[in-house]
UniProtKB/TrEMBL annotation, chains A, B:
SUPFAM superfamilies: cAMP-binding domain-like, Winged helix' DNA-binding domain. The keyword Phosphoprotein does not apply. GO terms for molecular function: DNA binding; DNA-binding transcription factor activity. Residues 169-242 form the HTH crp-type domain. This is Cyclic nucleotide-binding domain protein. Gene3D superfamilies: Jelly Rolls, Winged helix-like DNA-binding domain superfamily/Winged helix DNA-binding domain. Residues 35-129 form the Cyclic nucleotide-binding domain. It comes from the Bacteria. Keywords: DNA-binding, Transcription, Transcription regulation.
Length: 249, 249
DNA sequence: TGGCCGCATTGACCTAGATCAATAATCGTT
DNA sequence: AACGATTATTGATCTAGGTCAATGCGGCCA
């Protein structure tokens, strides 16, 4: 996964993260994207203590499911995850994809129980944040508390957009929006906004967007024929991000 | 709006709330559903000070829109609201409906800007919670902080279910789910779970569920023909909540 | 108390995207 | 390297729900 030239120095070594499990928050390549941002040095050291760092999961492993008792929220350290909610009849919906620095499990705080399942899409690592401790700490670290609320609020805001997408957008608009969202997130992490690997299957994408796999497949083909993208299996290049943006609606 | 006999004493006077603007949190009929739950008496008194209480809005008035600068989140005191997100092309999606004790505007915390619009569906009142102050206070009131996070998390959890609904459910399942959700919320507020007024238009319901008005209208007719509900304009009675539940999927 | 105007209902028809079915390409395993 | 299993692509057909159009109804204001 060699990086192109426009990568900021900060993220040069992002790929190394998973080989270096015991790195402290302040030295972590994800620092700017992650929870500790804005914490005082002393507070950060304290926080460091409670974080269960860099647990590894092979591809397809469940980080938690609805039977797991709730104690922690998680931050992706490397790799990627998907979360799903399930109905009694077995239907499931992919509610989101999560990349390094993003939080998983915040919707469980209220009920103190996971109502969804999180699965790794590739070999991945997470940092585990014991929630009780986190709450204790926020009592004396206003900045931590602000960060947590901010995270919650950001996901909420994203979910509202997703509701619009699911409720109002056409298949074409859905896929264009999805591709640009992923692109943006790769870019934010110092990777190329144009070329990346889709770690999730076509089925996962289709499910997430409320479409059939066949529709996604056809759209990929059409977008490629129209010169918007180039795909080869899981690899994708955005060839005309501008036109893609116009397709988002 | 006379109440049926199974109403808890606590909520007997819910209808009076809007006539009694300066009632303190601890004496408010919504106390059990609202933010102050679990706060110590002294803390509550302090919180009371910063709350801008019971501002009134006539039907159709915007509580805020995307041009409003963000300073506060709101709790519905009486009446009801809808929130919408808009695309540049004018399409809009109704992201939620809000009843007494429910919070509006939490998705704005992250960006410190409202990305949605909130409109009253009937003559309504809100309590305004200045967010800066709220954050200051939570530094010394762990319970307040927990309440806030809990609220955020609960809405997040609800939005995931809504995503499932929008992405996977049939029109019939969507409407059944919607009706039972509203029913549950009325019940939680001490009103009848079976008979209530839908304060939103058919168009709002359709939009929220990702359907056309005509589809909603046809479903109402069919549900009524099947003895599941009885409707007369905005009034609705759930006649067979059990079967309705089975239709939710 | 009657006359709008916006909302709701109903029917006829249409279409975006689902479903079904048949390959084809990839991946993980031995 | 070969194989079975999973995942992706492509084509043919179908359908849930959308769109269009006409009519009905209720609430509101003069």
């Amino acid at each position: 996964m060699a990086q192109s030239s426009n990568v900021t120095p900060l993220f040069n070594d992002l790929a190394k993260v998973e080989h270096d499990h015991n790195i402290a928050c302040q030295d972590c390549a994800l620092y700017r994207l992650c929870l500790p941002l804005g914490l005082h040095r002393n507070d950060l050291a304290e926080l460091d203590e409670i974080i269960q760092r860099s647990q590894s999961f092979p591809r397809g492993h469940a980080l938690f499911n609805t039977d797991t008792s709730f104690h922690s929220i998680f931050v992706v350290r490397s790799g990627s995850f998907k979360t799903t909610v399930q109905a009694v009849d077995g239907r499931e919906h992919v509610t989101g994809f999560y990349f390094p620095g993003e939080f998983i499990g915040m919707d469980a705080i209220y009920a103190k129980a996971y109502k969804s399942t999180a699965k790794s899409l590739e070999s991945s690592t997470v940092c585990e944040l014991p929630f009780e401790k986190l709450q204790e700490f926020s009592a004396t670290m206003p900045q931590l508390q602000i960060q947590l609320m901010s995270r919650l609020s950001r996901e909420l805001s994203g979910d509202k957009s997703l509701m619009f997408l699911l409720g109002k957008k056409t298949a074409e608009e859905k896929l264009a929006t999805f591709l640009l969202s992923i692109s943006k997130r790769f870019q934010d992490r110092g990777f190329s906004a144009a070329d990346f690997q889709l770690t999730m299957s076509r089925g996962d994408i289709a499910n997430h967007l409320g479409l059939a796999v066949e529709t996604i497949s056809r759209l990929f083909t059409r977008f490629q024929d129209d010169g918007l993208i180039y795909t080869k299996n899981k690899a994708i290049s955005l060839r005309d991000a501008e036109r893609l943006k116009q397709l988002c609606g």
